[in-house]
Amino acid sequence: MHLPGYVNNVATPFFVTGDPMIYASDVLIVLTLVAIVFVLTYFKKWGWLWREWITTVDHKKIGIMYLIAALLMLFRGGVDAMLMRTQLALPNMRFLEAEHYDQIFTTHGTIMILFMAMPFIFAMFNIAVPLQIGARDVAFPYLNAISFWLFFFGALLLNLSFVIGGSPDGGWTSYPPLTEWPTDPGPGENFYLLALQISGIGSMATGINFLVTILKMRAPGMTLMRMPMFCWSVVGASILIIFSFPALTVALALLMIDRLFGAHFFTMLQGGNPMMYVNLFWVWGHPEVYIVVLPAFGIFSEVVATFSRKRLFGYASMVASIMAIAVISYLVWLHHFFTMGAGPGVNSFFAISTMSVGIPTGVKVFNWLFTMYQGRIRLKLPMLWAIGFIPNFAIGGATGVMLAVAPGDYQYHNSYFLIAHFHQVLIGGVVYGMLAGMYYWWPKMFGIILNERIGRWAFWVFNIGFYVCFLPQYELGFMGMTRRIYVYPAGMGWTALNLISTIGAYLMGIAFVLIVWQVLYSIRFPERDVTGDPWDGRTLEWSLPSPAPHYNFARIPTVTARDAWWAEKEARRRGEDVQKELRPLEPIHMPNNSGRPFILSVCFFIGGFGLVFEWYWLAILGGLGVMLCLLLRSLETNTDHYIPVEEIRRTEAALGRL
Amino acid sequence: MQKTFDRRRPRAFPPAQWRRGLWLALPLLLGGCSPQVMVFHPVGPVGRTEERLIIISIVLTAIVVVPVILLLWHIVHRYRDVPGNDAPYRPEFSESRTLEVVWWSIPIVIIAILAVFTTRDTFALTRPPEKSTTPLTVEVTSLDWKWLFQYPGSNIATVNYCYIPTNRPIRFILTSNAPMNSFWVPQLGGQEYTMPGMAMQLWLQADKPGLYYGRGAQFSGKGFAHMTFDVHATSQADFDAWVKNVKTTSPPLTEDGYNQLAHPGLSGKLSYSSYPPNIFHDIIMKEGGMYMKHDRAVLESAK
Q: How far apart are CA A356 and CA A365, in angstroms?
């Protein structure tokens, strides 16, 4: 199975020792770990960490942990991006060598999509969905904790490759036969395969969990067509997760079997068919794009309506367009490889299906515009990011339609035009959306409002940096510059545009630092949200104190209209008696905390690590641990408890809600 | 809720001077005045078809994008929540059958028009750009990390450069004896993948003599960044002279020589007066082509 010429590489797996940056990171990682252990021990916080966070099944806390993880991964992926842009700033740069650059663009892409965007949307799911539909938790809180910890240890496994064994270097798409063992020996690609597989199980569970939560746990009176638009977007994203992740699971598993056990699914020789992997990958990969962008659309719908003090325009159209996007997104995957040489009929079909995604998306943009039209627009931070998103997405959407034109794509494919396009929709759509959501729900999570002045600086620096970085890249694509090249010669006319692009990337880096500073500043000088409704909100989460008590609703509300909380406030303004019957409090049924999701995920991590290095005894040990955890859970009877009325009354009184 | 920020006015969105700067930058970015903007300086019918389609798609999408940005600009200005704003405020205005019909139908019409052009050109590009002249076949193999060109008509081979006659359709038959790559000569036309075990065909044609930039576009490992090649387009007479020159002055490519080439590494420009017969065909078959009806059909038709 080995090809001539590649065999020698096995003796020199790409250990990245010898690079000063790696040593510096080693030192930093050790220092950080020591500092964390010291702080936890010194302040006697180990017990608190275990009881309040690691064993929690509370969706609000899980949401916060997802958010922290997403921001950390945004930092890591961002540093990767800075390193790449530094290397490309000028022709013939000697800052990074080919191997190192290849690893960096691989981890940048993998981390940003799977370990930044995914946890960021899951953070928003967890923080907002149960509160918006008037539920006390998700349908399966225990499973929710498992989802988080599987994601966490998947991300840890991938990040570990930076210092142990070497990072993957086949691109975030990891196309074979390049990523098969003969051409890419060593543990790097194994880290990619196992990390994605483990966190993928968590993503799958989250999709199921939130679909069930929304379908089964809405407050009385909240019909589907009265749901906040964010919840609709979560329905769309969850359906996409459930039906697309299995394709990724299969693709990764087969490639892993090739690599570890010498099978020939995707190899060059012995009848392997690499294009099968490419198809399977994008059957997941394209819906994945909508998995992360639909929730962003949902957040924009909430934010635009709230900060325009107006009902969302064209609610039914918005629902229809989310569902249309969800369905169409399964029919477009081939546009990622029009240049594979499929027949003109196939290419035309996928070109047209891809373009037609632009129809529902365009409708959404017009609906947002007309939500603002004849409203009263307050340019608070969430709204700034939402407004910044619209021109961004208009351009990104237009270049998307351009890319859908198959013969045009023959020229754009793998060029910087493509890079500029997908960064414009993924940053302009997903990152803007998630930051809007973070600013919007931050008071609900922590009870404080983030500092407005620093936030505005961050927004403007980021927004300008964004265009400075990515508009030149469209042009670079037309000039023949392809992605994933670590060096380019002078005299191609690429130099000035690359330099400008790098400056833009640094500006975005500065904006990230400003956001971190904003958070720290706001913790030090907090502006407290005592009302629970800092934005004059429209949906049920704003009817609760900030942060919400752990059971969320002392009494489950009865919903009579869309924008339930706004309707209730309107009724009060008119002097009507709303929900005054005040049903008596009842004991609240809540799930118990459990450390097992964490332990289960540790076992997955151990098993995964074993497979990465082909230490099968360790892999089997991890697998047995997983089995044991599942068995113990199956035999468990004591899984839930009731909060007595007295305790609820005390809590509510302390919050001033009685 | 404090309103201080809303009142700190003309921090309009976005500040006027930046907006103007953006508009000034646009023609610079999209104009493609320099010939280095290869996609907008095609030298053959394939590249021209693609350029025309790209321009059509830019114009059609601009019909939506430009009004959206202008409308956003206007709405955010007009309906700011500032004291004394006399613009109408209708908090319940959220349904309008007419408006929604308008913006469901505009994109549908635009996409329908674009779909027609796209389908027409997608089919056209699979056929030779010109029927009257006999095409020239060039077999291309991507290796780690170099390009091998074989001329079955004259039995010569080159590495990292090729010659083609102008005004004659070129049928490139593409494969790879390494991880997949993509064959791209932007000024002649768009790219197509080179894949192990597969024979794909790509029609290109040059109208003007010249030296054109070509490169691998699909990441294939360590040496990928250096996988560029030159395409020399010359008159048929010059092309024939070049072939004759290679035939007489260059060494032959032996089986061993080929294996040396296939070995991962970089290479300069090389020329060979002959190559082992059937090597292109055999490699495709060995790497899985034997299972592909399509491969056999392409190879058969190129003979």
A: 15
Domain count, chain A: 1
Strands (E), A289-346: none
| Domain CATH code at residue A521 | 1.20.210.10
3-state secondary structure of A527: strand
Q: What is the ipTM of this complex?
A: 0.91
Listing DSSP states for A56-79 in one string gives: ---HHHHHHHHHHHHHHHHHHHHH
Site from A376, A454, A463 to mutate, B interface, most B CB atoms within 10 angstroms: A376
Among candidates A328, A330, A349, A329, which has minimal Cα distance to A338?
Answer: A349
Residues of chain B numbered 147-166 and touching chain A (CB < 8 Å): none
B14 or A289: which leads in pLDDT? A289
- The CATH T-level fold of domain B4-29+37-124 is Helix Hairpins (1.10.287)
Interval A243-257: pLDDT, tens: 999 999 999 999 999
CA pair distance A77, A603, nearest whole angstrom: 26
Nearest CA in chain A to B10: A379
Specify if A655 maps to a domain.
Answer: no
- The beta-carbon neighbor of A369 closest among B72, B191, B262 is B72
B224 touches chain A (CB under 8 A): yes
Q: Which amino acid is at B193?
A: Y
Mean pLDDT value across residues A477-491 = 95
Which of B65, B74, B14 is CA-nearest to residue A395? B65
- Tell me, yes or no, whether A658 lies in a domain: no
Any B CB within 8 A of A491 CB: no
Where do you find CATH 1.10.287 in chain B? 4-29+37-124
Pairs of residues, one from chain A and one from chain B, whose beta carbons lie less than 8 Å apart: 311
- CA dist., res. B227 & res. B145, Å (int): 6
CB distance from A136 to chain B under 8 Å? no
What pLDDT, in 10s, does the model give residues A54-108?
999 999 999 999 999 999 999 999 999 999 999 999 999 999 989 899 999 999 9
Where are the domain boundaries for CATH 2.60.40.420 in chain B?
136-301
* Omega of the bond leading into B145 within 30 degrees of 0 (cis): yes
| Cα four-point dihedral sign B87, B89, B94, B95 | negative
Place of tokens 């959306």: A433
Q: Do A310 and B94 touch (CB under 8 A)?
A: yes
**Contact flag B91-A312 (C-beta cutoff 8 Å):** no
**Count of Cβ atoms closer than 10 Å to residue B88 Cβ:** 11
Domain assignment of residue A649, yes or no: no
Asked if residues A137 and A552 have their Cβ atoms less than 8 Å apart, the reply is yes
For chain B, the distance separating the N- and C-terminal CA atoms, rounded to the nearest angstrom, is: 79
Helix (H) or strand (E) holding B203: strand B200-204
B25 touches chain A (CB under 8 A): yes
Whether residue A322 is contained in a domain is answered as yes
State the CATH class of domain B136-301.
Answer: mainly beta
Q: Three-state SS across B58-122?
A: HHHHHHHHHHHHHHHHHHHHHCECCCCCCCCCCCCCCCCHHHHHHHHHHHHHHHHHHHHHHHHHH
Q: How confident is the model at residue A16 (pLDDT cuts 50, 70, 90)?
A: low
Closest chain B CA to residue A9: B264
